[in-house]
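Ticket #4471: structure output looks truncated?

Reporter: J.K.
Steps to reproduce: submitted the chain below (68 residues) through the standard prediction queue, then opened the result file.
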Amino acid sequence: MPRKKPTTKAGKSAKVEKVMHEYKTGTLHSGSKHGPKVTSRKQAIAIAMSEAGQSKKRRPQKRKTKSY
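Returned output as attached by the reporter:
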């Protein structure tokens, strides 16, 4: 069963901090723990945002106009 993503702002920022700490110590892997180590800061940020659930862009819905 997959883990739930954090829902609060504090939980999301804590998750990002944890992943970036893994990157700084050299223990962050792309994919599974057996995958290659992440060496790019941009890739580490992308993984952190994805795991925290912040990578999805929120856009306001377009208004539907009535067609007569």
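Triage note (M.O.): checked the attachment and the full token line is present. The chain has a mean pLDDT of 84.
Status: closed, working as intended.
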